[in-house]
Write a structure and sequence with these properties.
alpha+beta, two-stranded antiparallel sheet, about 10% strand
Length: about 180
């Protein structure tokens, strides 16, 4: 039991990193919106995945509800992962294909009207991707945050506007084994 002692808890937190984070987060002038801003941060070692620092709110370790945003929020990371999990790998894979003199092999996924068209020879920042209602395995998925669709977008616009359907289409082209 924790109350009776004898339990050892090990952490990968780097106290220097944690202190710097706390100092920055205590000064609201470091954030756009000042005192009205909301923020949380987790610092990971990119080689080991170890958590080196963690903070859950501006000016204090928890927000006014007593929550630590970094550890207790129920929101999924969603859009913050798209650049790392979808867009960067798509550009990298296309770069590697182009460097090796190979054309990107686009797939007709069957769940969108775009098919193989509009991509060009590689996925680039100016590649076209159609934001439209999609059905995957008979269900409408994914849905955009706006619950609407805006038609043709460039890769650049899709990332700027964080469009879910575009991210799914791009991921389908590069494959999950590449990310």
């Amino acid at each position: 039991q924790v109350a009776n002692g004898g339990l050892k808890i090990y952490s990968t937190i780097d106290t220097n990193v944690q202190k710097i984070m706390e100092d920055v987060f205590e000064d609201s002038s470091n954030f756009p919106g000042g005192d009205d801003a909301e923020a949380a941060m987790v610092v990971l070692d990119p080689y080991t995945g170890q958590v080196k620092g963690l903070i859950g709110g501006l000016g204090r370790k928890t927000d006014i509800r007593g929550w630590n945003r970094a550890t207790q929020m129920k929101r999924q990371p969603g859009s913050s992962l798209k650049p790392l999990a979808v867009y960067a790998p798509a550009l990298q894979k296309s770069y590697e294909y182009q460097k090796d003199g190979k054309l990107f092999k686009f797939k007709d996924t069957g769940y969108d009207s775009q098919g193989k068209s509009m991509w060009g020879n590689y996925i680039t920042a100016s590649s076209g991707v159609k934001d439209e209602k999609m059905k995957v395995k008979g269900k409408e998925w994914p849905k955009n945050f706006s619950r609407s669709y805006s038609g043709y977008k460039t890769f650049r616009q899709a990332i700027q506007q964080s469009i879910n359907t575009c991210a799914v289409k791009i991921l389908a082209q590069i494959g999950t084994d590449y990310t």
